[in-house]
Amino acid sequence: MAAIFRSSLRLRPTTRLSAVRTLTTTPHMRAAEKPYFPDEPSAPKLATAIPGPNNKAAAAKLDKVFDVRSLNMLADYYKSNGNYIADLDGNVLLDVYAQIASIPVGYNNPHLRKVAESPEMVNALINRPALGNFPSHDWADILDTGILKAAPKGLNQVFTALAGSDANETAYKAAFMYYRQRERGGAETEFTEEELETTMKNQSPGSPQLSIMSFKSAFHGRLFGSLSTTRSKPIHKLDIPAFDWPQAPFPSLKYPLEEHAQENAQEEQRCLQETERLIKEWHNPVAAVVVEPIQSEGGDNHASPAFFRGLREITKRNNVLFIVDEVQTGVGATGKFWAHDHWNLETPPDMVTFSKKAQTAGYYYGNPALRPNKPYRQFNTWMGDPARALIFRGIIEEIERLNLVENTAATGDYLFSGLERLAKQYPEHLQNLRGKGQGTFIAWDTPKRDEFLVKAKGVGVNIGGSGQSAVRLRPMLVFQKHHADILLESVEKIIKQL
User: Fold this and answer.
1) Is this model's pTM higher than 0.85 or not?
2) Does the record bear Transferase in its keywords (predicted)?
């Protein structure tokens, strides 16, 4: 096993145990791969049990004024650096969860610090505008050099928002308004008196019985409308009234993929056929279909590019909008800037929603008819945040400067190969390994998942789960091969403790 994680260019880290346990890398490894953060720790450091006394005391203090029942750990962000997150007791963990896939270019990134200290940022923070009414004179330039610079192919406009759930809900609103506008005969057709009167009573035709189709195990947010498309866990939805919207089956693939090609193709075809049947037969007409490139919260469920191309064909054939939810998969995590770039679509999605690693949110679109025909129909006070748009611009600059999408693709291949070797050695603990060719967006199932996640902190790794039994990896774009070596060693240590 000692040679499993070596390559011709780098050696494994060695372990040194003392009062403070630190996993150190050899000089040969450091010479083989230049780290993006020169002052980043060379390995995790464990000073106390986790949580330690300082973290426990801070959590108790916080609990008096804030619900801490979902607490993972209290972090000291002043001391966190690059791929490493620090706590209040001197523990420093390799972070492959990254704020639920939301940190793109490392903690305390020097370039983002410069952005944060810029006069543009000061102006955006202390003079935050109500964007729909009073945008800054340079808002178009900020968008053109940032958010729109990263726009998916074929989409050249954006509606900015505050969070992923908000991005999806505003996209749904755009889909409904587009559907009804088309039914009326175009943007110039005025609303009827009946529509104006009935919508104030939450009745049709002003408030029509339309729907958004999502998929079994999907997650699209926790706000009121997005919850009706979220199908991952009951705890998200319990006690909340929901819309009568359809749920299509998402393919349940068998792994390894290459050993089940025919069965998986049949499963995907079954799901496509049922999706089209539901679109045609559902009693509340379907205005749009929303789908994640990889179902993240629902268990890291994958489908092939052929499935998504088939889904796009179905939406086109049935005159239904196609919304791709890239909130968790977007901004480089899968080895492409946008995960749907893996699909090679003939026509782009109608809308692509984003948040998380973008540090801002919204949806991209290209069809001018998706812009509402009157003002104030797609509106709120903030409509996004120029400060966060400036951060996303800085993130894009850092991604381009360091070729981080390419790094993530290469590191992901390296990491996946190491996990494949571990899966062969420990098949009972590392099952259904998935994410090959998808950058570092990797997951596997394990029967003792929750215990695995707890023990990970004991070996210096912060890691997360998804679905009922999946361990999911969500490292940053600055995650490199020497970090992968540490992670692979750590995974084996955890397995041996289970």
Assistant:
1) yes
2) yes
